[in-house]
Specification:
Layout (H helix, E strand, L loop, with lengths): L1 H17 L2 H9 L3 E6 L1 E2 L14 E2 L1 H13 L3 E2 L2 H10 L6 E7 L3 H13 L4 E5 L11 H11 L2 E6 L2 E6 L3 H16 L4 H14 L4 H8 L3 H8 L4 E5 L12 H19 L5 E3 L10 H9 L4 E7 L13 E5 L7 H8 L2 H6 L7 H8 L2 E2 L2 E2 L3
Parallel strand pairs: 1-5, 1-12, 2-3, 4-5, 5-6, 6-9, 10-11, 11-12
Antiparallel strand pairs: 7-8, 13-14
Helix pairs in contact: 1-13, 3-5, 6-7, 6-8
Amino acid sequence: MRDRKQAIIRSGLEALYFTGAHKLMRPFMGGIGAILTLHRVQPARSDHFQPNRLLEITPDFLETVVQRLQRSGVDLISLDEVHRRLTSGHAGRRFVALTFDDGYRDNKVWAYPVLKSYDVPFAIYVPTSFPEHFGELWWVALERVIADNESIVAIMDGEERRLPCRTTDEKYGAWKTLYPWLRARPDENEIRDFVRELATRNGIDMAAICGELCMTWDEIAELAADPLMTVGAHTIHHIALAKAPEPVMRAELRDSRTELEERFGREVRHLSYPYGDADSAGPREFAAAAELGYKTAVTTQPGVLFPDHRTCLTALPRISLNGEFQRGRYVDVLLSGGATALWNGFLARNARRAAAAAFAPIGGKTARA
């Protein structure tokens, strides 16, 4: 099933590229620019079981993307410049901004040398618990528990379930059972408690994972000394804000920003919502971010930017560089707006509708921006 889904997506991207449809759609669907979502950048792993691979791209692919964008005449700009172009109404050439979520150490080790060599601005959104190394990267812990065991016993909806994990297919089957179920929990604490107990029982140290994978404050400061880097907020504990009570949600947005500003001695103007989908950030969070003074805030809802996104600067879409689809031509298709327009049911063509929808619940759910 996993391979079939990837094959379908890949076939769609290939069809849009090789038929030239993405070029035909670009004048109508391509907007004025895009913000790219990245997480980890590191050499390819050889493990057969890699459910989080979608969050990882290789340094070579990052360099391919940068070179491809520069050859195409796209401006590679900072988030401050994205804000200026959207609010001024003078976008100029099409533009792209590169953003990294979570503050992984490989951003410094592998991504930064590529970006520095090509003089490319970038932003890193930092959850402030991660540099302290008490953050919980529960999705990594879950991957490691499944990878290290031949079976898992878990209590789900009050029932004990034993999930086989002997083969790679069985491991992916266990992941597809557990991960969506966890993401659907109405309370973030349920996710943390479940994975924490599972990890402890199977000898996985969640704090050690954070220390292994995430930068320290000193490492972030080294990058932040370069004017190419923008430090952005990503809450304190990397929680799904829409599931949190209002006071908790506001404290996560406010206090994480205060911590970053005190540490780096500069205003923090930009925010990324953890997870960033419609179930994790919606109208309440968009309004709170604006009230708290963030200039921009980004989701993970797929889409390019249009002039009318100036009316919803704290609900901006992004284009994900997915580690499962590392081909330069796929980036061309995604930035054309064709693939995301199809994904969004062509809402993106009318940016005013998309902007209005970002701040209004429709049918009980937040519309995709």
